[in-house]
Write a structure and sequence with these properties.
This protein has helices at about 1-20, 30-165, 170-185. The chain has one domain (about 1-150). By secondary structure, the chain is mainly alpha-helical. The N and C termini lie far apart (about 165 Å).
Amino acid sequence: MRLARIILLFMALISSTAYGSEGATPSPFSADFLFRVINAVILFGGIGYAISKPLKNYLKERSENVKNAIMEAKKAKEEAEKKARYYDEKLSALESEIKAMMDEYKRSAEEERERIIREYNEQIQKLKERMAKSIEQEKAKLREELMIETANMAVQVAEEMIRKNFTPQDQKKLVQEYIKMMERVN
């Protein structure tokens, strides 16, 4: 079928060139002009007929390709929008998750801070108690040492006083009192 169209087109071209090569310019009402017009109509009609089906097929195919491309573009757009919504949801969830994590870290840090302060205060209290006990022990030790020192000094003062003021008669009197005391005990 295609070959027939090509042959018809070829014959129309040959006849129009052969007829148009006579060289004389025909008047618009002459038979020659009428043949030329008919020849041109046949030529263009044949060309139109010859290319109409392939052109129709091409345009139909092109139209289908454009429709398919539009459908694919719509599908791609819908998929892109779907992905965008999905990622927006993910991003929103991620933002809320990050906020929750930050809140948890803040809460954890505040708890840790309070725990450290509590432990610090407990250690200070224990240190104060140890220092108070240590101070009390030091006070008791110093009192004891002071009392011993005072007693030693009193003994020394008493010995000095006795040496200075003690006479042989006082010694006899003291011995007699001691003997009397021993007799009462026995």
